[in-house]
Amino acid sequence: MNLRVIKFFFGEALISLRQNMVMSIISVMTISISLILLATFMMLFIDMNSALGNVSRNLNVVAYLDKDITSVGISKVEEQLASIGGIHSFTFVSKDDAWQRLKSKFRYQEDIVTLVVGNPLPDSYIIRLNKIDDIEKITRDLGLIDGVKDVRFGRSMVTKLRKFVQIFNIVAISVVGFLLLATFLITINTINLTILSKRSEVQIMKLVGATNSFIKWSFLIEGFILGIVGSLLATIISSLLFHFVNVKIQDAFPFIGVFTQGLDLLTLDLILLGLGTLIGVAGSFFSIHNLLRGILKK
Amino acid sequence: MIRLRNVSKTYNKHFLVLNRINLHISKDEFAFLVGPTGAGKTTILKLILREDLPDSGTIYIDKVNTRDFREAQIAKLRKNIGVIFQDFKILNRTVYENLAFVLKIQGEKKQAIKEKVDYVVNLVGLEKKIHCYPYQLSGGEQQKACLGRAIINKPLILLADEPTGNLDPDSSWEIMQILNKINMSNTTVIVATHDKTIVDLMRKRVVAIHGGNIIRDQQLGRYHEPESY
Lengths: 298, 229
Ligand SMILES: Nc1ncnc2c1ncn2[C@@H]1O[C@H](COP(=O)(O)OP(=O)(O)OP(=O)(O)O)[C@@H](O)[C@H]1O
Ligand SMILES: [Mg+2]
Hints:
By secondary structure, chain A is of the alpha+beta class. Helix content of chain A is 74%, strand content 8%. Chain A has two domains: 3-55 and 161-295, no CATH class; 60-153, Alpha-Beta Plaits (2-Layer Sandwich). Chain A is elongated, with a radius of gyration of 31 Å. Chain B is built from seven helices and ten strands. In chain B, helix 4 (110-123) packs across helix 5. In chain B, strand 7, helix 6 and strand 8 (188-192) form a beta-alpha-beta unit. The A-B interface holds A 4-5, 8, 15, 19, 200-201, 203-212, 214, 296 and B 49, 51, 71-72, 75-76, 78-79, 83, 85, 89-93, 97, 101-102, 104-107, 109-110, 149.
């Protein structure tokens, strides 16, 4: 296809879009509203997911060291800790610090503390993980380190969190899936209406010698333009929307952290543009295919 | 050029419009199809344009059976046939765009398109209305636009269904002169019409259809049987 033909098809598509201004606007609006809805849900889900990630990072694993460990032993343990994968960070808590902390926790019940003679607590490491999934394996590895006596974490909490993440993911994927399907069907339907209103024009084009593929191309490009414009609109509106929400949330709850941290806006924009264009082109493909088959049958 | 052999056409299963018609129109001929309303004139033109197929019998265009045409060949056939439809069938675009469209789909260059369209628009006398949309044109002007579109391609065959239906006598005569001119430059012309005056003035071949049959086919003919004059 040379440049002149492409220019011609774009010209044809633009003429047709202008002639069906109302339907074109409705198509564009349908595409962009559906995409904005989709983007909002995607954002919510991705954000929830990264929030869950935060929770799992805050789950601590505590490795208690042997009571009589030497400072050389401690540095050896530290070396081995550093070599285990999947660990986000670790902090050393000396037995004295631990004792101080415990005492301050029970400062209104001094008798409990005074009952204990000396410091019964061992040195320990508080370890944070990258991902909750690795927790069993990493605790096993920790237990094997020379000088580590015991490893503990909140097992029931981990199980609950896992279950929750699982269910959440299923719900999120189905909702986004259904939204995608709905967007697709609504768009096909709208474009179908647009094309049906051009039934007689298509018939005339055929009678003066236009081939099916000619007609298909001009409609595909029309769908492409509808899709691009619709998704551009969706991109702009959703970016503004997310920015606005972001600022508001930061104002109200500064501790929540940055909204939309899971996915940067550029990636989202690209996804929206791609989806919108695909939906536009596919929608017009199906519609024009049906229409031409109807005309040929006659 | 065009041959109909035992062609029958029924609408809605039992409404017989054409009953085993045989007709041959040779290259560069000029023929009128006459007959009362509902006789089947438009139907014959539609069959030649391969807008429809006969129920039985065969139609040959340049020795090719229209039944054998594939989609691409139909498109090619239509590029070689100029048509003026009884109901115009004009695109909702300007006169210029309607004429240019036919050339654009054949991939002609912009400059060539402009020259040809300007020439034809002058020929049919629409130069003042070249940028008008169909709703801004009178019936006769739309008809002239259709004529322009039909001849812009220098077609091998020109099918004209009531080309003078909405025109005053002078314009009608102008149109016939244009058709005559097209015919002189090697285009086969078939005109379906009720216009007695025109047919009688032109003295061309006349094919009369009635009740699904060809009841008369004569060279240098008139609208009615000779004895009625
Ligand atoms: N698509 C169709 N479906 C059903 N009947 C049709 C169809 N097209 C034409 N007919 C019928 O076939 C008959 C012939 O129609 P046609 O249009 O060929 O007549 P015509 O000779 O061109 O008449 P006119 O001079 O009024 O244009 C008419 O009675 C018409 O009602
Ligand atoms: Mg007719």
